[in-house]
Each structure stands twice: as C-alpha cells, then as structure tokens.
Amino acid sequence: MPRRHYGLLHRAGLAWLRCSGWRIEGEIPDLARAVVAVAPHSSNWDFVHAIAAVFVLGLRVSFIGKHTLFRGPFGPVMAWLGGIPVDRARPDGVIEAVAQRFARGEPLWFGVAPEGTRRHGAPFKSGFYRVAQAAGVPIVPVYLDYRQRVIGILPPRAALLPVDEGVTAIRQLLLTRGRRR
Q1: In 89-126, where does DSSP find H-type helix?
Q2: Is residue 3 part of a domain?
Q3: Is the pLDDT at 91 greater than 70, yes or no?
Q4: Rounded to 5 degrees, what are φ and ψ at 67?
Q5: Residue 161 and residue 148: Cα distance in Å, rounded?
Q6: Are residues 165 and 63 in contact, defined by beta-carbon separation less than 8 angstroms?
Q7: Which of 37, 38, 65, 141 is 20 to 30 Å from 29 at the Cα level?
Q8: Contact 166/159 with Cβ under 8 angstroms?
Q9: Does residue 2 lie in a domain region?
Q10: CATH of the domain at 28
Q11: What is the CA radius of gyration of the chain?
C-alpha cells in the first residue's frame, strides 16, 4: 500500500482523533492500488477526520476535490496532501485521467466521496466504480459514523458487477454502517 511518513503530522492526527473522540476500526488491506470510497459525506469535518486518520495510518491517498479548494493559501497544501482539483462544472475526462494514473502501475490509493456533496439523500455517483473497473482495482469501502465517532475500514470489494448494481451495493454497505453528522 502507498505509505508516507508524516512526521509531526502523525502526532497531530493522533491528538486530533483522541481529543475529538474518534477512533479507527477495521484492517487496512495490503493493496498497492485501490479506490477508497468514503461515505456518508455529511460535513466539512469529514475531511478533517479522514486526513487525521491518513496521518495516523501513514497512508498516501490521492483524492479529487472541488477546484476552488486549491486556490489561495490552501492550494499548495491540498496538492501536497494528494489532492487533484476538479471543476465540477466540467467533469468530463476525470474518470479517464484517474484511470490513466492507475495505468502507470505505481502504487495508488484514490479516495473519493461517492455522493459528491454533503446534501442528505444524494445518490452515489458512479465515477468511483467506473474508475475501479477501468483500472482493474478493488474498492475499499470506508464509512464515517458520527454517532459512534468511528472511521470504519471494510474489506475490499472487486468491481465486477454492472455499474448500477455495483454502486447500489457499495452505497447500501456504507450507508447501513455510516451515520451522518
């Protein structure tokens, strides 16, 4: 799996999780390449908790984010963290671009919030599943449970079903365990 040494950020992540009462459950699969689907996405705090977990676990995870997050003083930080800016008004080519990064054969964990928005009841977008299929990599489902304050890592799933069925299966898996803020 792609690893990174975060130095003091490892300790900062531990402190954040401890002070905020969050914990990590589940096993990190030993995979060089995977799509990591994180849900539910219900708050701006999702990113804070998730990045703290990434620091603690020493993972290197790339992710797409709203292009406006990469402007101003946070732009270089978001890029250093592994962010890839996406203009949601022009999403064409995103799946192909991410699949091409996987095609390089380098270790890559690609994290995505399949809902694409914090709005309650939003359907999962299919891009994460199509990327996994195109790249031939598994999906690692990760849920956020705000009631129990748990970041849960579930066993990887192969993206073998037709897209609609696969997206529905991952959605049910994540939303039955995760709980919104």
Answers
A1: 94-103
A2: no
A3: no
A4: -55, -30
A5: 31
A6: no
A7: 65
A8: yes
A9: no
A10: 3.40.1130.10
A11: 15
125 within 8 A of 114, measured Cβ to Cβ: yes
**Measured distance CA(29)–CA(1) in Å, rounded:** 8
Query: Which residues span the domain enclosing 44?
Result: 8-177
Does any domain span residue 170? yes
**Structure-block tokens of residue 118:** 């914090």
pLDDT one-digit tens code per residue, 27-53: 999 999 999 999 877 777 888 899 999
Give the whole-angstrom CA distance, residue 89 versus residue 159.
27
Mean pLDDT estimate for the chain: 87
Which has more pLDDT, 111 or 101? 111
Domains in the chain, number: 1
Quote the CA–CA distance of 104 and 130 in Å, as a whole number. 17
Which of 82, 120, 125, 117 minimizes the C-alpha distance to 101? 82
Angstrom CA distances, 159 to 12, 74, 80, stand at 35, 34, 29
Scanning the structure block, which residue is given the tokens 């449970």?
A: 145
Name the residue among 161, 146, 144 with its Cα closest to residue 51.
144
- CA distance readout (Å), 146 to 40, 71, 108: 10, 29, 28
Cα dihedral: 55, 58, 53, 60 (round 10)? 90
> How many whole angstroms from its chain centre is CA 48?
12
